[in-house]
Amino acid sequence: MPQTATTSWWPTATTLLLVAALLLVPAPALAKTDIQFWHAMTGQLGEAVNELVKQFNDSQSEYEVKPLRKGTYPETLTAAIAAYRQRQAPHIVQVFEVGTQTMMLSGAVLPVFQLMKEQEIAVDWKDFIAPVVGYYSKDGNLYSMPFNSSTPILYYNKDAFQKAGLDPSKPPQTWKQVEEYSKKLISSGATKCGFSTGWPSWVQVENMHALHDQPFASKRNGFDGLDPKLLINQEFGVKHLGQLAAWQKENVFSYGGRAGAADPKFLSGECGMYMQSSALIGGFTKGASFKWGTGQLPHHGAPYKKATSIIGGATLWVMKGKPAAENRGTARFLKFISDTNQQMWWHVTTGYLAISNSAVKNLETGYHFKKNPDQFTAFAQLTKGTATPNSQGLRLGNFVQIRDAIESELENIFAGKKSAKQGLDDAAAKSNDILKEFAAANKQ
Amino acid sequence: MQRTVFKSRWLPYLLVAPQMAVTVIFFFWPALKSLQLSLYRVSPFGDRSTFVGLENFGKLVADPDYYSSVLNSFVFAGGVTVFAVLGALVLAGLVTQKIRGLAVYRTLLLWPYGIAPAVAGIIFLFIFHPAYGILPYFLSFVTAYDFNWLLKGWVAMTLVIVATAWTHLGYNIAFYIAGLLAIPASVMEAADVDGAGPIRRFTAIVFPLVSPITFYLVVLNMVFAFFESFGVIDAVTKGGPGQDTEIMVYKLYKDGFIGLNLGSSGAQSVILMAMVIGLTVLQFRFAEKKVTYR
Description:
By secondary structure, chain A is an alpha/beta fold. Chain A has 21 helices and eleven strands.
């Protein structure tokens, strides 16, 4: 047998292995800790989230926040729950306002005030604006970090107003004016319908009750107890929804579906006025092909007081069970986004409210609101009215199901299948059952 | 039918094992878990679960919304089955004639089967849309009736039935083409010679000869319409207006994943499974008698 070369292979192999080991070992020490952030923002808002996260990641080198859009708000919440059960929850989850009670009683979250205390990061809790703090606090402590808060406002088509002979700088302020303007818009051929609405329950039931200082549910809208009863089928609810149903027949009001399904009605020029979240300002600025303006939500006038509207949108919740090192990253990210500069940037880019008084003050001194009066409408509506116990917000368990029950019955009312009283009675009855179920499941 | 005989004792079991594993893991196990879940009241995050026996079932039986969802399911499944099976038979008949471009027509007819149900739903949403859909536009020349599916329940139901049936046509057509082509030409010619018109030929010869396929497709389409029709409804009507297109599968999803009431959702899925099993058994016992196998 011929002799092979005597240089054996294993010195080379060992050298290669050592080199590889040396190259690999420092890697973990340089790797950033990942912070998983699940959210539900799409389109222009989604891009804004990515940009905000990038600003944070670029500002420091220890943590990398990874934003991930999980779907719509309900889908994101469901995904977080499923992940939590698998012990693979993200660090931060964006949950919409109706999920607040579910999150608070879940035992799966680390309240934000506790997180900041544990991580010894100072946050000026008193600086957050009152409507936001009231909604998301328990016993005076903030449970989730306010992020994207909005409130519904009135959008109107200035070009259509002009065509109909209406003053394009004066949006309607009372419901009587809404009816009057709608009829003018239709008769002049400027639009096919007067107005429509997005998120029917949030805008026309929840916010209308708050704005007119009417209780939505007993026990101070649910803040004082786990099984309140809905009061939407009282005199005010029946009056307002009955009015909408009557207007639906004349095309003064044109129902366009739930959530944002009716947006095309306004953007296409079919309806001259539209009530939707103030967060659409950014999208409308990019997407509307006509001149438009904003105004506060219309009010019925006497005998109802003019209170404030309630916030919508979502907040960021921190999930329990993560190691302290990762919680530090989470805390630093939350502190970053609530800093005045970031809040101002977020507000200007998206149209969501700036949630701290300092940010608002800075925006005012920078003449931002003078240059962009539309973005001030939401603030004015939230802070310049008279805050009453009925306008602090709603805290109901299984609120997602309740909204669904209400919106189903609203569809029956608008279709003329049920009278406003009947539909609201049924919605209240169904919702009360849902609340009873929630109280039973969360007996404390 | 030729029977395959295996020489080895364990090879057949080994070959079937992967499919059995998939069936057990993805079908039987979740079904058993649903059964277990239906007897509990569970908190959304899973940290609290109380045994409540048949309370979830009791609540469903007392709920008028549940009965309307059952009714909607039957209407929906019936509509889809009739549309998809009859439509497929007619179209397959048209496409098995001796005409030019046959292969092209066949391909185009089969294509919609590859479309995701949600996409099909959106397509028909645009067609039916009260503001910018072409169907209401053309119908407006004939009648002043407002086909607004956002407010009129029967329009919404028609929309989802048509959208769902349209996607499933391709599958049925494929089977019917095979069935129609298997009919010996001699039989049809003999009937023609005997003076049978096209309709008589169809009812006396074609229909009985494809009846095994019809039976199979009816069962399959009904099960499909009961269980897998979630996509179209979620993409288009979300159970609305009111509860008019809320079929059992959709109510199950809404209560479980949106409402986070997993106990009730589990109970609903148990009832749904029992119903479909019952339906299939019924169909096998009664309809199969009328089927002429060769």
